[in-house]
């Protein structure tokens, strides 16, 4: 793979606040969609202590970001190609120390990532749930921030809390919202309108509507089969929405 | 500068040193064999190494051992002669590099200004105290940061990747060490008293070295007004911002769910 150091990739962070909202499923599938459209994509598993991008993709990884931090292993050697154009940088699971990197480790990781990002056109970071240090740091490192929420009160509250922290403490003003697992377009619009109103009124932020993903049995089926739902059911409702979100990302 | 009374000379010496720190120069104190000031050599800090070596030779040939011993062994290009630490220009370069890193890594950095409040005016003592304070700072923070001299009686500690909590922790550690190691030898209310100003900045603050130093000086001044042992801090955008989701925010956020339940 040739490295064009002059090219600047688009770095996008995917977060949600609450866990179980569909961040990893979205990240894996949107990376697949972008790769299918001919883009070079890197998906970084940003849940450094409880990684599961590899689980959703059904791959077995022996070496992870942990080895880069502990042994100085080159990040390039850790990359796993899923389909042509789509690479994953895997993280470790069950390593509590990785859940909160020290500042020195974050600096090291930033420099190490600098060495590989130029190989790609899109860098997606699938962060952990919550508002821990590594979540905030990845969101700061990225230039675009996607927040996924579902139409339930806990998801909406946590997504709002995440954006509030990123805004108040880190000056982030631009957020793309994805309404996941919605029953209808109206429900997606209601969720977006409500979140948009609160963000505008209390934080003076106007979020951007990136899209919504409808409830689709194929999604949970694909998760159990450890495959992207785009590959398993490309014509399904969720897949069609996902492709239009990928199109929007390419026009961002 | 050799025909003045010792106290006048010390005052003048301090004043010249303070002013010189704003310029890209190096200063070499000249003292006699009783460690009394007899002069001050000022030369451009971009002087060639050969020129600096020649100056050292000249100083060595003079009958002023204190001047010889006060020559730091490995001084940086823009180092401060008295403390053997990076001086004004070098400090600004260090800050510029650090702020660039803050922009790149999106990690905060802290600047801690450690001031000697009410320190002995006689310069050899003052410089000795400053060097001791530098040792104390290094002992407290290890290899975490970069130490420089900011003004006649102020050290600047630049701490990469340090948030406000950690910055204040280091400031407290430095103070604790200073109290234990630096102050006991001196009479109460007479010896050096340490004060500290802590500033933490993030990438979105877009500060330049001068602005960051000004904020640090302001905090140091506030600490000076509070008295010995005071630590004052500031963060352009407060990390302590109250981020908890309020009852009003939650009510508005979730209101539509309840309206849909009860059309």
List low-pLDDT spans of chain A: none
- Report the mean per-residue pLDDT of chain B as an integer: 73
What spatial form of chain A do the alpha-carbon principal axes imply?
A: globular
Mean pLDDT metric of chain A: 92
Oligomer: heterodimer
Q: H/E order of the elements of chain B?
A: HEEHHHEHEEHEHEH
Relative helix content of chain A: 40-55%
Largest sheet of chain A: 8 strands, mixed
- SS elements, strand count of chain A: 8
- Structural class of the secondary elements of chain B? alpha+beta
* Overall number of strands of chain B: 7
For this entry, give a set of tags:
heterodimer; A: 252 residues; eight-stranded mixed β-sheet; B: alpha+beta; two-stranded antiparallel ribbon; 8 helices; 7 strands; 46% helix; elongated
Fold and architecture overview:
Chain A has 252 residues and is α/β, with parallel strands linked by helices. Chain A is built from 11 helices and 8 strands. The mean pLDDT of chain A is 92. Chain B is an alpha+beta fold and 263 residues long. The termini of chain B are far apart. Chain B contains 8 helices and 7 strands. The longest helix of chain B is centred in the middle third of the chain and has 19 residues. In chain B, helix 5 packs across helix 6. The radius of gyration of chain B is 23 Å and the shape is elongated. In chain B, the strands form 2 sheets. Chain B has a 5-stranded mixed beta sheet with strand order 4-5-3-6-7, sandwiched between helices. Chain B has a two-stranded antiparallel ribbon with strand order 1-2. In chain B, strand 4 and strand 5 form a beta hairpin. The chains are: A alpha/beta (252), B alpha+beta (263).
């Amino acid at each position: 793979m040739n490295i064009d150091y002059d090219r600047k990739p688009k770095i996008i962070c995917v977060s949600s606040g609450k866990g179980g909202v569909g961040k990893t499923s979205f990240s894996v599938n949107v990376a697949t969609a972008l790769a299918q459209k001919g883009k070079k994509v890197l998906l970084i598993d940003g849940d450094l202590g409880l990684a599961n991008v590899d689980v959703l993709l059904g791959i077995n990884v022996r070496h992870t970001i942990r080895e880069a931090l502990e042994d100085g292993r080159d990040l390039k050697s850790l990359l796993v190609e899923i389909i042509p154009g789509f690479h994953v940088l895997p993280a470790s699971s069950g390593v509590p120390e990785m859940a909160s990197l020290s500042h020195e480790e974050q600096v090291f990781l930033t420099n190490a990532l600098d060495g590989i990002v130029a190989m790609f056109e899109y860098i997606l970071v699938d962060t952990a749930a919550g508002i821990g240090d590594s979540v905030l740091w990845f969101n700061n490192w990225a230039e675009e921030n996607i927040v996924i929420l579902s139409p339930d009160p806990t998801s909406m509250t946590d997504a709002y809390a995440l954006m509030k922290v990123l805004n108040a403490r880190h000056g982030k003003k631009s957020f793309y919202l994805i309404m996941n697992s919605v029953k209808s377009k109206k429900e997606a619009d209601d969720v977006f309108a409500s979140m948009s109103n609160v963000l505008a009124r209390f934080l003076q932020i106007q979020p951007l509507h990136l899209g919504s993903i409808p409830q689709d049995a194929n999604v949970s089926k694909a998760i159990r089969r450890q495959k992207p739902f785009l590959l398993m059911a490309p014509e399904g409702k969720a897949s069609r929405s996902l492709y239009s979100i990928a199109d929007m990302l390419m026009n961002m | 500068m050799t025909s003045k009374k010792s106290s006048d000379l010390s005052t003048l010496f301090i004043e010249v040193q303070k002013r010189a720190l704003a310029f890209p120069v190096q200063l070499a104190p000249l003292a006699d064999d009783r460690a009394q000031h007899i002069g001050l050599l000022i030369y451009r800090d971009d002087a060639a190494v050969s020129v600096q070596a020649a100056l050292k030779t000249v100083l060595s040939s003079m009958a002023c051992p204190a001047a010889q011993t006060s020559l730091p062994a490995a001084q940086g290009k823009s180092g401060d002669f008295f403390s053997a630490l990076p001086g004004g220009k070098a400090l600004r370069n260090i800050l510029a590099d650090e702020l660039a890193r803050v922009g790149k890594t999106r990690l905060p950095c802290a600047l801690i200004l450690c001031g000697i409040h009410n320190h002995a005016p006689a310069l050899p003592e003052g410089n000795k105290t400053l060097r001791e304070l530098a040792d104390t700072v290094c002992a407290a923070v290890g290899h975490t940061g970069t130490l420089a001299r900011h003004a006649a009686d102020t050290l600047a500690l630049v701490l990469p990747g340090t948030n406000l909590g950690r910055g204040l922790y280091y400031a407290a550690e430095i103070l604790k060490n200073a109290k234990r190691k630096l102050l006991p030898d001196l009479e109460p209310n007479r010896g050096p008293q340490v004060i500290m100003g802590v500033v933490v900045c993030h990438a979105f603050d877009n500060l330049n070295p001068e602005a960051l130093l000004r904020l640090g000086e302001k905090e140091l001044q506030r600490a000076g007004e509070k008295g010995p042992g005071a630590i004052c801090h500031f963060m352009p955008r407060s990390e302590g911002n109250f981020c908890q989701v309020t009852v009003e925010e939650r009510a508005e956020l979730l209101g539509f769910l309840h309206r849909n339940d009860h059309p």
